[in-house]
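Section 4.2 – Deliverable D4.2 (structural model, holo form)

The reporting period included a commitment to supply a predicted holo structure for the target in complex with protoporphyrin IX containing FE. Inputs used:
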Amino acid sequence: MTKPAHIIAPALPGTRQRANGAASAHHQPSDSRRWPARLDLLQSLSGMLLALFLIAHMFFVSSILISQEAFYRVARFFEGGWLLGKPYPILVSFVAAGITALLVLHAWLALRKFPAGYRQYRAFVAHKNRLRHDDTSLWWLQVWTGFALFFMATIHLYDMLTQPDMIGPFASADRVWSGNMWPLYLMLLFAVELHGSIGLYRLALKWGWFSSDKPDADRRRLRHVHHLFSAFFITLGLLTLIAYINIGREHAEHLGERYQPVAATAAERR
Ligand code: HEM
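Output (structure tokens):
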């Protein structure tokens, strides 16, 4: 198994104190010494759940590329009408609340690893520039994209939490175009895809997934998969965003009007 130490952020000034502290840690009750490892595991788990959610989310949202009707059906599916007899948009709010809680937990755990204060920041940047090691630079990119996500993801989640009934081909496209959300979505898309794919790459290295007795070859292969993963989801996300923008522009004159499913319009004609 590849040792986690390879990809853990390099030592910062504060960590020397921690190392000194570790010497006296023999005298601490064993349970308290396990907490850093538990928190690390929790950070990995929450990150993995968020990444899995996001992969599913990108596929659901991109159903607009198939047709407006396809996205309409996906959106109604999550309101549970097919199971409960009538649609309950509040189910979407529950999911949004759960994802928000997971995001807050993940961000709180990640804060432990951010440089604390200017001296640690300067020390890390100098170290990174001297080392010129790809994975250390990736870690830095992950810190910044994660920081940006604090703000951008919560704006979108608040929308989904408070307006769960406003999801559909026209309602979503109107929000993207007439509601001026597209610049935020564009930045959010790059931030979250880079953050998520770097995160999964680092998880695979850290926990030794797919590892063999050739660590260098493993790392090269994982890096390749990571680049393909980012390119695929950024392309899918951009095409999806363009589709919402186009529908939103065409629909701008009828802002607020909701999409009528094919079955309803056929019944009206009869
Ligand atoms: C339960 C939670 C969520 C729901 C229900 C949801 C739903 C949606 C929907 C319906 C859209 C289409 C545009 C719109 O209606 O405004 C969208 C777009 C988008 N969402 Fe989410 N979302 C959720 C969470 C997230 C999270 C946590 C992220 C990232 C951290 C995210 C990133 C994006 C991005 C980047 C777009 C732009 C679409 C694209 O470029 O493909 N979403 N989301």
